[in-house]
Amino acid sequence: xxxxQTNPANAVRTVSxxxxxxxxxxxxxxxxxxGFVFVSGQLPITPAxxxxxxxxxxxxARQVLANVEAAxxxxxxxxxxxxxxxxxxxxxxxxxxFNAIYAAWAGNARPARTIVPTGPLHFGLKIEVEALAVVLxxx
Length: 139
Prior knowledge:
- This protein is an alpha+beta fold.
- The chain has a single domain (5-134), classed as CATH 3.30.1330.40.
- Helices cover 22% and strands 29% of the residues.
- Strands 1-2-3-4-7-5-6 form a seven-stranded mixed β-sheet, covered by helices on one side.
C-alpha cells in the first residue's frame, strides 16, 4: 500500500495511492480505521492531475468511479467491500446517466447510496463521489 502512513496511537492509517493525483488540499484519498475504509470525495481528475472540466458528464463519472476504486484497492478493499456511496452531482438531470454507469461499474454490489444535487462543484466539475467500505480479507 504505497504512500500509506500509520499512526499507532489511534490505529488510523491514511492511504494515498500512487495511481491517483496528489490531493489538492489537506486530506488523504482514503483513511482506514477499525476495519472500515473512508474514501474522500473523489473528483474527475486523472492520475496525471488533469481536471476533466470540459469533458462530457459520462467521462467525468467514469473517471470518478475509477478514482474511488483505486482508493478502495489501495486501502485493502474493493467494490465488493462498499457499504455506502454518496454522489454529488451539479444537476439532477445527470442522474440517469450516472445510474447506468454506476450499475455497470458496481456489478452485483448494492451498497446504500445517496444522490445530492448541489449546483456547481469545485473547478466547475459535474460530479464528486465519496464512499465507505470495509477492508476485505486477503485484499
